[in-house]
Every structure is written in C-alpha cells, then in structure tokens.
C-alpha cells in the first residue's frame, strides 16, 4: 500500500512540478548590453578581443530563445559603400570584427553552465552545434567563458542587464 501511495504522489507531483516550472519566466530573460569581450591568455593576462569598447546586445525571451550580437566598434567602413564590392581586407575585418548567432539557450544552474543551441550564426561552422559556457551571475552582470581555443586563450564575455 505504501508503494501505491508513493507512486500516486509521484504521479501527482511530476505534472504539478512541470506546470510550475513552465510558469516560471526564463531566469536570464531580458536585454543585455555588452560590457566586455576579452580573452584570457594562458599566462592569466586579459586582452581585448573586440577592441577597448566593443558594442553588443544579447536578447533572451521567457522561452529561452536568444540572439547575440558582438561587434568591434573600430571596424573599417567599406570604401565603396557597397557590401558586395568590398575588398578582401574589408571582408576580413567585417568577419573578424563581429560574432553573431541565435537559437535556444539552456541553463544548468548547479553546474553554472549555459548551453547555446545555435540555429544560425555569422560563422556558419557553428550552425547546428551546442556550445557550453561556464557562467557567473552577480546581480545584473552576467559573464561567461568560452572553452579554451587551441592556443590556450579563453574568450570571456561580460553583459549587463538593461532596465
């Protein structure tokens, strides 16, 4: 009889728990302004990856859909004024001076991990991938680290929630 009672309680708890979780807004929902886009070098020093004053926004909705845009402010303009007639150097600066992607975001609070489930990206190799980032949330400041690059450097993004 105890087993039946436990099973009944479990059967009642699971749907109620799922409904409560679905009703909660996504913890990171909102608009976030980029504060820093840096690299931590193997020796521990921190250098700017997108210039001293990068520009960017991350938007996350209550269902966990997201969009990230990071830009180096000092990107050169295309001399011809037309994106289709850019020089190889202009195209390179445009690609290396930006990072954009969107998709779904999952949070694992116990392990302090964000998982970006990337649907589309400026760097096509990321499309259809899942990328994990260790994160910290302190008040309205969110920071996360990208896994180390082959050279040992670790990209770090810092965001501030906008009111």
TrEMBL record:
Superkingdom classification of source: Bacteria
Keyword vocabulary terms for this entry: Signal
Pfam family of the protein (one): Lipocalin_5
Cross-referenced InterPro entries: Lipocalin-like
Lipocalin-like domain ranges (all copies): 30-153
Signal peptide, first to last residue: 1-22
Protein name per Swiss-Prot or TrEMBL: Lipocalin-like domain protein
The organism of origin for this protein: Duganella alba
């Amino acid at each position: 009889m105890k087993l039946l009672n436990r099973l009944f309680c479990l059967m009642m708890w699971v749907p109620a728990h799922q409904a409560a979780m679905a009703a909660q807004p996504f913890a990171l929902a909102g608009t976030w302004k980029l504060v820093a886009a840096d690299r931590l070098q193997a020796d521990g020093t921190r250098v700017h990856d997108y210039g001293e004053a990068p520009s960017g926004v991350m938007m996350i909705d209550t269902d966990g859909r997201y969009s990230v845009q990071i830009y180096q402010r000092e990107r050169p303009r295309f001399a011809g004024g037309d994106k289709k007639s850019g020089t190889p150097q202009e195209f390179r600066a445009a690609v290396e001076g930006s990072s954009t992607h969107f998709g779904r975001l999952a949070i694992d609070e116990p392990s302090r991990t964000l998982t970006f489930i990337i649907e589309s990206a400026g760097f096509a190799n990321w499309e259809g991938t899942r990328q994990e980032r260790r994160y910290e949330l302190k008040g309205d400041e969110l920071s996360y680290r990208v896994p180390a690059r082959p050279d040992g450097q670790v990209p770090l993004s810092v965001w501030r929630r906008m009111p």
